[in-house]
Amino acid sequence: MIATLNSFADIATIRTARISTGAQMELLIALCLVGVFFGVYCHFLVLVPLTLATATACSMFAAWSGQTIFETLLTILILAVALQGGYMIGLTSREFLVPSKRI
Fold first, then answer.
1. Domain span at 15
2. What is the mean pLDDT of the chain?
């Protein structure tokens, strides 16, 4: 039997869930690219303040939207791993992405 939507609220809930998932994926990709940029052009100590700023922004948004502590910590962990993974990709590909200054 096919499930039917009972109201416009159900449709709005489905659309919100799709938009939220897309926004989360865009944030994950953006943080990975930010990590690649800082891995190519900056030193190691840039990761600490960048990770703290990401965690602070994420926790403020979670408090504003009413997420639980577990959801907030999981989100912070995933974003920190994406940022640091991007940093490592940028660090290891520095040789290929940035032209050398040797003559």
1. 8-97
2. 78
